[in-house]
From TrEMBL:
One Pfam assignment: adh_short_C2
Protein name, entry field: Uncharacterized protein
InterPro entries: NAD(P)-bd_dom_sf (IPR036291), Sc_DH/Rdtase_CS (IPR020904), SDR_fam (IPR002347)
PROSITE patterns noted in UniProt: ADH_SHORT (PS00061)
Keywords per UniProt: NADP, Oxidoreductase
Family recorded in the similarity comment: Belongs to the short-chain dehydrogenases/reductases (SDR) family.
Length: 268
């Protein structure tokens, strides 16, 4: 079947859906994290941006400078999400700076060039599990504690992947880590639901991003696109829009869910 060129519609008008919220985003200087930060700010939230990379954080600050009142509505913190003391410290800092914690998007993650499990070094495995998975455990633990004691409930969104729902040849460690996020989301959703704390995972397939391009060779990406009914990879705002919805009160009866954001990809 021939594909047709279509014109994408612009993102929906901003509806101030996160007015009054304080949000914390890890990996906030990354491709998806930064777009989500922008969207959250435009929707009225105050945002704490966490990232390991100081230079990327500085670039993120410049990139967001066009948003009104951005200085007073943001807090930039360089921290390592795989460290428990650092995670506890940035959650405490977020709460003491802004006085609340309503939404958390745990976006920090690490991928790698496709490699057979037969050739995957255990040090790479450990690193991938730490950045994608240990960080989620620590983030849910400390953000969950803060939300419980603040007493306003909250929404925690975990950045899984299509690789957290299906086989991803050459990405065993990444896939294991992203599958594990379902375990955290489902179990913690059960434990924390009585405090009004919701947990959901999102599962993007390919996002037009450096991470995707460095993980999959162009030829394979082109072949994979034939399995995407919408015949394009996601743009960062496609992902940020879903995260914003899950953070908003419009999603207040959604917890433990797994949301594919993949253009209807046909998995095989
Ligand atoms: N890009 C895609 O195609 C895609 C598809 C599916 C899922 N995802 C997932 O979405 C998330 C975001 O992806 P992205 O494309 O924005 O990636 P990215 O590489 O652009 O951003 C990740 C950010 O995490 C930060 N980070 C890495 N290790 C850290 C640590 N130890 N402590 C704190 N920060 C750390 C990096 O500095 C970077 O800014 C990831 O979890 C990724 O696995 C991405």
């Amino acid at each position: 079947m021939d594909s047709t060129t279509i014109t994408l519609r612009p993102p929906s008008a901003i509806a101030n859906r996160l007015a009054g919220q304080v949000a914390l985003i890890t990996g906030a200087a990354g491709f998806i994290g930064l777009e989500t930060t922008r969207r959250f700010l435009q929707e009225g939230a105050r945002v704490v941006l966490i990232d390991l990379d100081e230079e990327k954080l500085a670039r993120a600050k410049t990139a967001l400078a066009d948003i009104s009142n951005v200085e007073e509505n943001t807090l930039f913190v360089r921290a390592d999400v795989t460290s428990e003391p650092e995670t506890q410290a940035f959650v405490d800092q977020a709460v003491s700076h802004f006085g609340r914690l309503d939404s958390v998007f745990l976006s920090a993650g690490l991928s790698y060039s496709r490699t057979s499990i037969l050739e995957t070094d255990v040090d790479l495995y450990d690193k991938v599990m730490a950045v994608n998975c240990r960080s989620a455990f620590l983030g849910v633990k400390h953000c969950g504690r803060a939300m419980k004691s603040l007493g306003n409930g909250g929404s925690i969104i975990l950045a899984s992947s299509a690789s957290g729902l299906r086989a991803s040849r050459g990405m065993t460690a990444y896939s294991m880590a992203k599958f594990a996020l379902r375990g955290i989301a489902l179990t913690a959703a059960n434990e924390l639901g009585p405090y009004g704390i919701r947990l959901n995972t999102i599962h993007p397939s390919g996002v037009d991003s450096p991470m995707f391009e460095s993980s999959w060779p162009e030829e394979e990406r082109n072949a994979m696109l034939q399995n995407v009914p919408l015949r394009r990879w996601a743009q960062p705002n496609d992902i940020a829009a879903v995260i914003t919805f899950l953070a908003s009160n419009d999603a207040q009866y959604l917890t433990g869910g797994a949301y594919k954001v993949d253009g209807g990809s046909v998995y095989n």
